[in-house]
């Protein structure tokens, strides 16, 4: 792995003049004329020969020489560790598994035991450095990609701090590899040793231990403080609460066991909600709040596998160690493992006398009770505020788009611009994450999808007079989007570069340059649309919350004949509405199909929609018939297809409120 990582090129540093020119081009149509004129002058002054910009650029040139990746530390702090917002909804994305049909409590424990077996298999691959190297797909395909993110899946932890969190990576040379999982059940935490006497527990043993944990959790006489709620609070609040917890040695021991575990498995009670994609997505993101499963979590761990008694299952991840593609690849491995290797509940000798799993204990002072009440109130507000809508658009999928000789990703991005414009009558700063894994320690940069060309197209779609030019404008918008994507994945986009210049100024202790105090810069980083393509080859979907109070989160999973959209916003904002946004999105996608069919001599649009509705009805019938197999995960595996750009994964809240 190290050989391949070192063989990867370093992240390039774009030229100052190119970045400043692109910045002005990206922002002109999002500003008033007065704002833009002011910004143009500020940018000109910043980029002048011998000016501040050139000095800061020279510092970045020096930094690039010394570091494997010149922007990595700046980016990690800015994107995640400096962010003070609570992790659930605001930062941590979730992967929602297919609805499971558990007929008895033992079925959910069997599912959990099978899942843990898969986790241990995957961990074995990681420990042996035997995970195959990913190669870029889609645009500029075939290049090897940096694999570092995978090796943080089960060995890292986000430690809260008063001003900035710390991403702790466990090094096996310093401390022994963790050999336990934490199981959360009824707001209690249990240590499940997965290696006993140097032997990994088999699935039968894991099930025995999970049954014991379930009984222990149900038989606890005294009320147990839901300590996990503290991790759902704002990061500064949680850091303060953690320092209170640390005063007691009992609490220190419990925290140490959680912080060093491989992952969490959360055995959730039934939520009582009617199961739909939308309700399951919300449950994955926040657990339903303190009255449901919100305290049955520990949000600082990278991987929390959720197994609900009502069949609501998935995984929620702490985003700072890795991008969504790593979450997808791990989740797909696990679900395929569970389909491909039947439950092994009989095979292999068991450990003769399994030691009982250990319940973690907490000493809870009156001060801690107050902090728990405050955290519960905050989570309750967050749960009430989230406006989630998951919609499967089934009129067509990426095959239709490819037949138009268009990039599915660029096409969907333009459709999102159209949806926002129809809802709100303007274009806004948009974030689409682009993978930088072609480079050493590569994470992501931003594809700025709110292009002038996209705005010209969406305006034309609301103007009946411009019918003849609509197709030309659509192709132009898609071409520009594709070019910016290539620019981003080759390290030449502007967001990371501007961040680097800003942070270089801070490190030099100079006064913040005017360009970074200007309204245009604040507007450019207030991402009202936070979007991401997260394609899967297994039947599941990704979701996340908005990154600003007046924004939308829009995650999409394009399949051959349908597209799954997970749209989120906040109820507290009177302007945003996820149902309305989805309605505008569906209408826009239908209008774009009609436009393509009219211009390319395709089938009658209305007839095609009627056919799709018939197919969809048939599809629902066949899908329902799969629910008669209780113990195997109900999963569809599709043949993998290259996504438009490898690893297009959403990056979390930047806290630019």
From TrEMBL:
It catalyses: choline + acetyl-CoA = acetylcholine + CoA. Residues 606-621 have a biased composition (Basic and acidic residues). Coiled coil: none annotated. The keyword Acyltransferase applies. Residues 622-634 have a biased composition (Polar residues). Residues 601-657 are annotated as: Disordered. It is an enzyme of class 2 (transferase). The active site is at residue 319. InterPro entries: Carn_acyl_trans, CAT-like_dom_sf, Cho/carn_acyl_trans, Cho/carn_acyl_trans_2. Keywords: Acyltransferase, Neurotransmitter biosynthesis, Transferase. One of its GO terms (biological process) is acetylcholine biosynthetic process. GO terms for molecular function: choline O-acetyltransferase activity. It comes from the Eukaryota. Pfam families: Carn_acyltransf (PF00755). GO terms for cellular component: cytoplasm; neuron projection; synapse. The keyword Acetylation does not apply. Its EC number is 2.3.1.6. Residues 11-586 form the Choline/carnitine acyltransferase domain. Catalyzes the reversible synthesis of acetylcholine (ACh) from acetyl CoA and choline at cholinergic synapses. PANTHER family: CARNITINE O-ACYLTRANSFERASE, CHOLINE O-ACETYLTRANSFERASE. This is Choline O-acetyltransferase. It comes from Poecilia mexicana.
